[in-house]
Specification:
It is built from 6 helices and 15 strands. It has one domain (2-270): Nitrilase/N-carbamoyl-D-aminoacid amidohydrolase. It has helices spanning 15-31, 66-78, 157-165, 181-206, 256-264, 267-270; strands spanning 2-8, 36-39, 81-91, 94-102, 108-113, 138-141, 144-148, 170-174, 178-179, 209-213, 216-219, 222-225, 229-231, 237-240, 247-253. The longest helix has 26 residues, at 181-206. Helix content is 27%, strand content 28%. Helix 3 (157-165) runs parallel beside helix 4.
């Protein structure tokens, strides 16, 4: 049995304050028996994509670098797998929304760069992030095979499927999603329902566990809805956090259920890989 911990939290005044706060949460999670710990999207910074401001590129970090050194030292000391979501400065004028994965010995297994980049009012991500070119890596960690995707990637079944085909037993999605004030009353619950339902569908279609960890609190006019959750291969909700409160959401998961599920419902066996060529087209007409 593997214990997963999702760190749902808010926004802090500085990166130093955020890192210190999150280190305390990580240590609490490990003390609670967690083997795998996952942060929310862009955990060191506010969700700064609510506006376009070139000065905000200064929030980014070079990876690997001091940030991953510190994360690795924490993972090694606590003997946990640590998934963290960061703002990466890759090169001159080149930035990514990037998740890093440290194994339980502290080693940096690699990074995943967010592939699908949204552009909506208050989610001005195309201004900041270059679409990722890291492919669809799956990491064989000390505590299971993990695929990491980020926020807007949640809506794309192709991304989840490619991770699952790479052997992922657990898909994790660091997230920053919430309500805009003028939409919440009429669309708020429908938007949340869609977000949760599509991801639970990924768990079922791929016969794997799925965990989404979101922000909470209000920042820049966006009310982040929290509600981090863990679903099993049947899409059942095993654990769910509150809307407004900081939480460490714990859930024990049994990776044996992944193989058991896939034997009973062999979706991978029955895929018509000879018939899906049109998926590589923008539109069928």
């Amino acid at each position: 049995m593997t214990r997963l911990a999702l760190l749902q939290s808010g926004t802090f005044a500085t990166k130093a304050e955020a890192f210190d706060h999150y280190e305390a949460l990580i240590r609490r999670a490990a003390a609670g028996g967690a083997n795998i710990v996952v942060t929310q999207e862009l955990f060191l910074t506010p969700y700064f994509c609510t506006l376009e401001d070139p000065a905000l590129f200064d929030l980014a970090d070079s990876l690997p670098g001091p940030v991953t050194d510190r994360l690795g030292a924490i993972a090694r000391e606590l003997e946990i797998v640590l998934v963290a979501s960061l703002f990466e400065h890759r090169g001159p004028g080149l930035y990514h929304n990037t998740a890093t994965v440290h194994d339980a010995d502290g080693s940096l297994l690699g990074c995943y760069r967010k592939s699908h980049i949204p552009q909506d009012p208050a989610f001005e991500e195309k201004f900041y992030f270059t679409p990722g070119d890291s492919g669809w890596p799956v990491w064989q960690t000390a505590h299971g095979a993990i695929g990491v995707l980020v926020c807007w990637d949640q809506w794309y079944p192709e991304a989840a499927r490619l991770m699952a085909l790479g052997g992922a037993q657990l898909l994790v999605y660091p997230t920053a999603i919430g309500w805009l004030p003028d939409e919440k009353e009429t669309l708020g619950e429908a938007q949340h329902c869609a977000w949760e339902t599509v991801q639970r569908g990924h768990a079922v279609a791929n016969g794997c566990y799925l965990a989404a960890v979101n922000r909470c609190g209000t920042h820049g006019g966006t009310e982040f809805w929290g509600r981090s959750f863990v679903a099993n291969p049947y899409g059942e909700l095993l654990a769910k956090a509150s809307t407004r409160d900081e939480e460490i959401l714990f859930q024990d998961i049994d990776f044996g259920l992944v193989e058991e599920f896939r034997r009973i419902w062999p979706f991978f066996r029955d895929r018509r890989i000879d018939a899906y060529g049109d998926l590589l087209k923008r539109w069928r007409s």
